[in-house]
Amino acid sequence: MKSLKEHNPILEDAETMREKRSFMSIASYLPAYTDVFVGRRDDYAIQLPNGSYRRAGRPLTNANLLNHLLGRQTYGTYVMDDDGQCRFAVFDADTEDGIDRILSIHDRLAAQGIVSYVERSRRGGHLWIFFIRPVPASWVRAWLLPIVQPIWNSIRSKTKGWAMAR
């Protein structure tokens, strides 16, 4: 017995239709995503299978961003824009106890009335702080370092990165 698709090649299978709807939905908010999360488009980093990153050395495209948002490839973008400003700060703790440390930073910030957002990652966690407008990255570091340094120093020694606005 032939499937409906075989009888009518215009019909698509449900999986293809879901993927197209997902793609169209993500594509519709791509400009807003880019405005918030991409500081520069002239370069980016590509995550390798071992979890490390390699500099791409070429401009970030909308196709790269769509593949990232669809979960096909993980990319890293620059937090700072060309003017040394940033729209957010992010802490990336890729250690076994990373999410616990991120939650400690979250609690410490909350005690001072600073809103932050926590997400679990494959190897730890991330903490995000968003700003109303772009601010100098040097100001962000000067403001946040004293608050998080006691917790962050113990993470930093075990990870490759200081992902906060540098």
What does this structure look like?
There is one protein chain. It is built from six helices and six strands, in the order αααββαββαββα. α5 packs across α6 (137-156). With 166 residues, it is an alpha+beta fold. The strands form two sheets. The protein has a three-stranded antiparallel beta sheet. A hairpin with a 5-residue loop joins β1 (45-47) and β2. It has helices at residues 4-7, 14-28, 30-37, 62-69, 98-111, 137-156, and strands at residues 45-47, 53-55, 75-76, 85-93, 117-121, 124-136. The radius of gyration is 20 Å and the shape is globular.
Summarize this structure briefly.
With 166 residues, the protein is α+β, with helices and mostly antiparallel strands. It has six helices and six strands, in the order H-H-H-E-E-H-E-E-H-E-E-H.
Which keywords apply here?
single chain, 166 residues, alpha+beta, disordered C terminus
Using the CA coordinates, give the radius of gyration.
20 Å
Structural class per helix/strand content? alpha+beta
* β-strand amount: 15-25%
What is the element string, with H for helices and E for strands?
Answer: HHHEEHEEHEEH
Q: Give the strand line-up of the largest sheet.
A: 2-1-3
Describe the main β-sheet briefly: 3 strands, antiparallel
Q: How would you describe the shape?
A: globular
What portion of residues is helical? 40-55%
Number of helices: 6
Uncertain spans? 155-166
How far do the termini sit from each other? 61 Å
